[in-house]
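---------- Forwarded message ----------

FYI, see the Diguanylate phosphodiesterase record below. Original note from H. follows.
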Amino acid sequence: MSWGPRSWKQELSAWICAGREAVRRRRELYEEAVRRRELERFIRDRNMVTLFQPIIRLADGETIGFEVLNRPPVSSSFPNAEAFYHYVGQSSQVFAVERSCREMALCRFAEQVEAMSDLRNALIFLNIHPHVISDPSFRAGHTLRLVQDYGFTPSQIVLELTERGAIEDYGRFARLLYHYRSQGFRVAVDDAGTGYNSLQTLVCLQPEFLKLDRFLVRGIADNPAARRMAALLLDYARESGTRVIGEGIETAEEFACLRDMGVELGQGYAIGRPAPRAICGRVPTTKPVRGLA
């Protein structure tokens, strides 16, 4: 077979492209294997940092609970917690990771209670992936036994749903929630006010707590549109018996605005940053906020 200049070049180009694709694929397989090994090591060694962020009542500054956050060590595979938990949510290890995180959170909060008994009755907000609700061991009472073993009651535990996009059938999911609500656990959803998915969650799941999205909270004192949206959510919350938490409060003005609008609870850097110790929140120095119409 004779080769012309053009066909020879085309064939060479095809070989080069195929070689590059093979290298890229091998690199992806290698990186995936590294991520999987790191994830298995996290599950085995529980090599995470646990942080506690206070949630306070805006009217008087009393700390009513803490969101418990488990953060993996930074690595080339997982440069931040968001990358880690996104990967977990797409993996087959979501149940094992979430179960390990629940156990770490409760164990380490119990250690905080030993050091400061005033925390004994505080609410404990635990982030949980929706897929875990369908985990048979979760519904069978594993979490209930775990909570009781550490001296807490189910009514103290607020399961904060993350990755709501993973909920495919809201009706079925709401029925699954009955299994732990009947045991006394409560539910929170975040990012309230950010689109159809958020509104569908509120209507179908009827959470006991909703968190106003940071997008609404940021600069709310100077943003009439954000205040109107927050007011609509507050009206819904009052009618449905849902408690509202302003999330991501970073300034005294945001704090004062949310408090004056009637938001009951809040968390954010202005109140208290996530820390290795459960430190009660504080009321930031506030100024009068005008023009809340």
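H. also flagged this: The CA atoms of residues 155 and 184 lie 5 Å apart.
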